[in-house]
């Protein structure tokens, strides 16, 4: 049996699942200013994906890269969800929500 597909699928699932709370916490503590951290992570992981010789690590870095790029959009969407009242506002950054 070949378990590689299942393991890569599981890793992808876990990586995407990790990015949901990262986006929520990032927007809560830093606002939309944290988008650049997702950009830098995405670029670094894309580069690593191109240069790592192990095909499985390359795939994982690619998944992290594009999850990071998607996280940029989600940070701005998270702000909209906070403004709608679906998520709590950070009381230390109330001016950012005006």
Automatic annotation (TrEMBL):
Q: Does the keyword Membrane apply?
A: yes
Q: Which InterPro entries match?
A: DUF4491 (IPR027890)
**Highest rank taxon of the organism:** Bacteria
What keywords is this UniProt entry annotated with?
Membrane, Transmembrane, Transmembrane helix
Q: Where are the transmembrane segments?
A: 6-23, 35-52, 58-76
User: What name has this protein been given in UniProt?
Assistant: DUF4491 domain-containing protein
| Organism annotation | Paraprevotella xylaniphila YIT 11841
């Amino acid at each position: 049996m070949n378990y590689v597909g299942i393991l890569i699928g599981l890793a992808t699932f876990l990586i995407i699942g990790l990015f949901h709370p990262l986006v929520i916490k990032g927007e809560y503590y830093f606002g939309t200013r944290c988008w650049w951290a997702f950009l830098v992570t995405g670029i670094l992981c894309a580069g690593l994906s191109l240069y790592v010789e192990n095909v499985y690590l390359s795939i994982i870095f690619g998944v992290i890269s594009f999850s990071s790029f998607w996280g940029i959009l989600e940070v701005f969407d998270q702000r909209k969800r906070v403004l709608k009242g679906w998520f709590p506002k950070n009381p230390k950054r109330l001016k950012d929500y005006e």
